[in-house]
Design goal:
By secondary structure, the protein is an alpha/beta fold. It contains 16 helices and 47 strands. Helix 8 packs across helix 13 and helix 11 packs parallel to helix 13. The longest helix has about 45 residues. Keywords: Glycoprotein, Immunity, Inflammatory response, Innate immunity, Leucine-rich repeat, Membrane, Receptor, Repeat, Signal, Transmembrane, Transmembrane helix. Belongs to the Toll-like receptor family.
Length: about 950
């Protein structure tokens, strides 16, 4: 045992002076964001091994992985999502994912897998979504999907599967599969008997872009199918439809037959199979007679939604085209080259609520739309519309969303939207608008979102938006706005977001007080304008007390700038401020006095060179700070900045070369730090930072393994974390010599002490135990249940039973406590001994040589002697069964010192006069406990 303890001691010393490397939070190839390991575009050829086991997401997309092997993934017990999209994976070993037992979603899209081998997905028993499209899969093994019993979505589209029998290998092991996407494979036939005879759980089946020649269903396997996609817009071969019973697809509500080539009879048979359930139909890129298809499909009484794109209708729409579509509520005619629509083309569509005419060739709003009085959504985007008139939407009084984006509209009139009292969304972006002409001054009281970006507006006149009292979002970016007036935004009291970036605004426009009316504004974007910072008598944002996000970056100015002290006055609730890339050379210490709640601050890409700790004094809630490209020479301002809540720090591309311990420890909440492209000094000044980067478990040091040295010259170009820190450590020779000498001396002292004073050590050991138990019981006033407790060795038990017990209990009538008779079963021995001593008036120790060698007897006599010494009462009687040599009494030298004052008897000398012995013992028991009571003194002869 002693040797083992010595080994542990030296092991501990070794760990102190030679610390074992610890896996830190600085990943070599990845970063961790929102508990997801992000390793995108890192040119990886192997799976990183240093990913924390606590991540729930793992993104390895856009790398150079070619094979997934069994040993590639470390145990990631909490991983739920993994993305391997856009690698070069051609081979996956059996059980390669077995350590990812909690994985729910796996993306293997855009790789080069040709074959899914045996048990390739073993271990993924909890996977629910698997996407493996855009590979080259030709072959499936019988056990490829064996473990995927909980899979709900499988997308294996755009591969090279050819046989419908392959589907059996997929569906056989997936009883819970609800969505199967086989889009863009090489399936030429779908025969239900080759798949299964049982009912499938499938809700969605996508067979689009397959060269299907036969679609045959001979049994009711699709009892749960609600969405079926069969089309092939790129195909040129006819498909034979063979569904034995029309009820087999009677639950399909969403059908896509885009590009499907069939005879009219087969098409009728197809539609008859879904006549009782179909609600939505897609017939894009059809090659049959369009008018016949429309009338055939519209005859279905339950169909309400029709998509009819890419059919090159151009001028084919006439007054009878949609005659039978009386039940339609949604009609999508986008991408059809439509130039003209007859005025009465939609007369029968009385219930139509959504009409999409985007991406056509319309030069004006068709008059036909005026007949659609129940229309809620109208999309005319991406046409050739040059103007809109007051009559265009006069009858569409129920419209809630109107899209006119990507047209050529140059101007509006004040009556164009006058009847659209229920309109909530208006899209006018990417037109040629120069003036608004009071189109919004009195109209559109319920509009919530207005998109005017990407036009040619130069000025926002007074009360231009006064009628938009419900507006919440206004986009005016990418215009040419230079002038604002005081009343430009009057009436927009409910506006929360306004985008004014990429215009020509100057400080003159801000001085007008145009923003004062926006009392509920939450987000303001003024990026990429021409606003020059200067002291203002009336701060431009003083009324925006609810503003939370202010974007002020990238002002197109020349020369140095200075953010004035009162620029942010009034922004008491500001959380986010971005002033990146503004040529700022100085920030006054009181800049953020008015923004005490600020959490996100970006002042990167400026020429600040230095920052003061006082600058951050008012913003103690700051969590994200960007100071990249600011030419900073030091980070010492952090030491007294008191940024205890800072979690994210980006300090790339600066001129400091040393990161000190004080700087890092002044940021106790730091979770992520980025010091890439810093010219580090590879010397002893950075030793602490190197050790911290390797070992800390809280802060992620982004891309730390690629940090490079720039000083001194002989280390230039080398990696910071490769720097040998042993040269910076103090000379350990003397420390090792001193520690080794100390250890040797310590063991020498212990050895000599044990050899020459082991009896004293033995005594001290028992003395401590006795003191501990006496401290527990000496204050207890327990009643004396016994006259005496008999302490003896088990080898002396015959004398106690045959001699002592009959005399004291039988003849003299004393109540004695003996451990074999009176100790309480189940209690610890120590507790029983102590209770017995303190609940007895006296303790009689029957001493022999065997008694002195007994550990329990020694504890009993020591506890009794403590009671004697501490209570100063005559409670101890010693009976020597034999003559004891002096050297054997040495462990009890304190007791020997007091023997002259205490009662003791010698049985070995009472052989001639036993009655005298028992009489003396009776008297000793009879005397009181007071120390001045009667004593009985006998002599013990010391033998050599």
């Amino acid at each position: 045992m002693g040797f083992c303890k010595l080994n542990m001691f030296f092991l501990l010393m070794f760990m102190i002076y030679f610390p074992v490397p610890v896996s830190g939070f600085s990943l070599q190839s990845c970063t961790v964001s929102i508990n997801t390991a992000v390793c995108v575009k890192k040119r990886l050829t192997a799976i990183p091994k240093d990913v924390p086991p606590t991540v729930t997401g793992f993104d390895l997309s856009v790398n150079r992985l070619t094979r997934i092997q069994q040993s590639d993934f470390p145990p990631l017990p909490l991983l739920l999502f993994m993305d391997l999209n856009r690698n070069k994976i051609s081979e996956i070993d059996p059980g390669a994912f077995r350590t990812l037992t909690s994985l729910r979603r796996l993306n293997l899209n855009n790789n080069k897998v040709i074959k899914l081998g045996e048990r390739v997905f073993d271990g993924l028993n909890n996977l629910t979504v698997l996407r493996i499209n855009y590979n080259q899969i030709k072959v499936l093994s019988s056990t490829s999907f064996q473990s995927l019993t909980k899979l709900e979505v499988l997308d294996i589209s755009h591969n090279k599967l050819q046989k419908s029998a392959d589907l059996e290998l997929i569906l056989h092991h997936m009883p819970q599969l609800q969505e199967l996407v086989l889009r863009g494979n090489s399936l030429k036939a779908f025969n239900s008997w080759e798949i299964t005879n049982r009912s499938l759980a499938l809700h969605i089946l996508d067979l689009t872009l397959n060269p299907l020649k036969d679609f045959k269903v001979t049994s009711d396997i699709f009892q749960n199918l609600t969405r079926l996609k069969l089309g092939n817009p790129k195909g040129n071969e006819q498909t034979i439809w063979d569904v034995k019973n029309h009820t087999f697809l009677s639950r399909v509500s969403n059908l896509d037959i885009s590009g499907l080539i069939m005879t009219l009879d087969d098409m009728k048979s197809l539609l008859e199979a879904v006549t009782s359930s179909l609600t939505s139909l897609r017939m894009n890129s059809m090659k049959l007679n369009h008018s016949q298809l429309i009338n055939m499909s519209c005859s279905l009484p339950t169909m309400f939604i029709l998509q009819f794109q890419f059919n090159k209708l151009k001028n084919k729409i006439d007054s009878y085209f949609f005659k039978s579509c009386v039940h339609l509520t949604e009609l999508d005619l986008a991408n059809n080259y439509i130039e003209h629509i007859p005025e009465n083309a939609f007369m029968t569509l009385k219930d139509l609520k959504v009409l999409i005419l985007s991406n056509n060739k319309l030069s004006s709003v068709p008059n036909a739309t005026r007949t659609l009085q129940n229309l809620i959504e109208l999309d005319l985007s991406s046409n050739n519309i040059g103007s809109v008139t007051c009559m265009d939407f006069s009858n569409n009084v129920k419209l809630k969303e109107l899209a006119l984006k990507n047209n050529s509209i140059q101007t509006l009139s004040d009556c164009v939207f006058k009847n659209l009292l229920q309109l909530q969304v208006l899209r006018l972006q990417s037109n040629q608008l120069i003036q608004l002409n009071k189109a919004f001054e009195k109209n559109l009281p319920n509009l919530k979102r207005l998109y005017l970006n990407g036009n040619k507006l130069k000025k926002i006149s007074a009360k231009e938006f006064a009628g938009l009292r419900s507006l919440q979002n206004l986009t005016l970016h990418q215009n040419q706005i230079k002038d604002l007036v005081e009343d430009s935004f009057v009436g927009l009291t409910n506006l929360t977001d306004i985008n004014l970036q990429t215009n020509c605004l100057t400080m003159k426009a801000l001085k007008t007080g145009a923003f004062n009316a926006l009392i509920n504004l939450r987000s303001l974007d003024l990026t990429s304008n021409h606003i020059k910072f200067e002291p203002l008598s009336h701060p431009p944002f003083s009324n925006l007390s609810r503003l939370e996000r202010l974007f002020f970056m990238g002002q197109h100015l020349n020369g140095n700038q200075h953010l004035s002290i009162n620029s942010l006055q009034g922004l008491n609730n500001l959380l986010y401020f971005n002033a990146r890339k503004n040529h700022l050379t100085n920030l006054d210490n009181d800049t953020f006095t008015y923004t005490p709640k600020l959490e996100y601050l970006d002042i990167g890409s400026n020429d600040l060179k230095t920052l003061s700790s006082q600058l951050f004094a008012p913003i103690k809630n700051l969590k994200n700070l960007y100071i990249h490209r600011t030419a900073l020479h030091s980070l010492d301002f952090f030491i007294e900045a008191n940024l205890t809540k800072l979690e994210f720090l980006e300090g790339r591309h600066n001129q400091y070369s040393v990161i000190t311990e004080k700087v890092i420890k002044s940021l106790p909440s730091l979770l992520f730090v980025d010091f890439t492209y810093i010219s580090f000094s590879c010397d002893c000044d950075n030793v602490w930072f190197i050790n911290w980067t390797r070992a800390n478990k809280q802060t992620q040091v982004n891309d730390a393994y690629n940090y490079s040295c720039n000083y001194p010259d002989n280390f230039k170009g080398k990696k910071l974390l490769d720097f040998d820190i042993t040269s910076c450590l103090p000379d350990k020779g003397f420390i090792h010599f001193a520690s080794t000498t100390g250890v040797i001396l310590f063991f020498l002292v212990i050895s000599f002490t044990y050899h020459f004073m082991r009896s004293h050590l033995y005594y001290a050991y028992h003395l401590i135990w006795a003191w501990l138990f006496d401290s527990r019981y000496k204050n207890k006033q327990a009643s004396h249940r016994y006259d005496a407790f008999i302490s003896y060795n088990s080898n002396d038990e015959p004398w106690v039973i045959e001699q002592l017990l009959p005399r004291l209990e039988g003849e003299q009538g004393w109540r004695l406590c003996l451990h074999h008779r009176d100790f309480e079963p189940g209690r610890s021995i120590i507790d029983n001994i102590t209770d017995a001593i303190y609940s007895s008036r006296k303790t009689i120790c029957v001493i022999s040589q065997r008694y002195l060698r007994s550990e329990w007897c020694s504890r009993e006599v020591q506890t009794a002697s403590f009671r004697l010494f501490d209570e100063q009462e005559d409670v101890l009687i010693l009976i020597f069964l034999e003559d004891i040599p002096t050297y054997m009494l040495s462990p009890y030298h304190r007791m020997r010192k007091l023997l002259k004052k205490q009662t003791y008897l010698n049985w070995s000398r009472a052989a001639d006069q036993p009655d005298v012995f028992w009489e003396n013992l009776r008297k000793a028991l009879q005397t009181g406990n007071k120390p001045d009571g009667e004593k009985l003194l006998l002599t013990v002869i010391e033998t050599q």
